[in-house]
Amino acid sequence: xxxxxxxxxxxxxxxxxxxxxxxxxxxxxxxxxxxxxxxxxxxxxxxxxxxxxxxxxxxxxxxxxxxxxxxxxxxxxxxxxxxxxxxxxxxxxxxxxxxxxxxxxx
Amino acid sequence: xxxxxxxxxxxxxxxxxxxxxxxxxxxxxxxxxxxxxxxxxxxxxxxxxxxxxxxxxxxxxxxxxxxxxxxxxxxxxxxxxxxxxxxxxxxxxxxxxxxxxxxxxx
Lengths: 106, 106
Fold this sequence. Notes:
By secondary structure, chain A is an all-beta fold. Chain A has strands at about 5, 15-25, 25-35, 50-55, 60-65, 70-75, 75-80, 85-90, 100-105.
C-alpha cells in the first residue's frame, strides 16, 4: 500500500522525471526527480493551476519572471506558486538527485 | 516566499501539531508534526476526503480498520488513503519529530 519517493529512480536520467502519483478533478500530485536538470534558458512555466512544491531531497534554485528574487531550496523547503506566476528551475544539484513533491491544484 | 517544514516547530508539543499550509475549494495541504503521539486506542479517522500523506522525517506506523496490514513508514514513504478508509496512527517515534505532509482532496 505504501510507496517511496526514493525508490524506482532510473539509473540513467536523460531528462527530468515527472510521474503522477495520484489525481482527482482539481488536484494532481507528482513526484519529480532532477539530476542537474534545469529549465531551458528563457523558458518560463506559466501554469493554469496553482502549484504547491516541496523539495524532499537534493538542492535547487527557482527563478521568477516578475522580479521575485531567486529561491534556494534545501530539503523540507516548500512554496506555493500561484497560477500564472511565471517561474523556472534555474539549477538543480548535479551531484545528487533532487526529489520534489508537487501538488497542482485549482 | 519559501518556508520550511522543519522550522517553527514548538519546543513543547503536548499534542500533535496540524497546520494548513495552503488550501482551495477541493484541496487542503497540511504539515503535521508528531512527537511520539498516536491516535487514541479504538479511534479511527473516517474522512470525507481522500488523503495523500508523505512521511518527510521521523518514523511512524499506520493501522487500518479493514484488515489492511499495518504500514511502517520511513522518510520518503507515501500512501494515498481513499475517503472513508478508516485508519489511525498506531505509533510515532518518541525519540524524534515525525513530520508529515498531508494533502486532503476530493
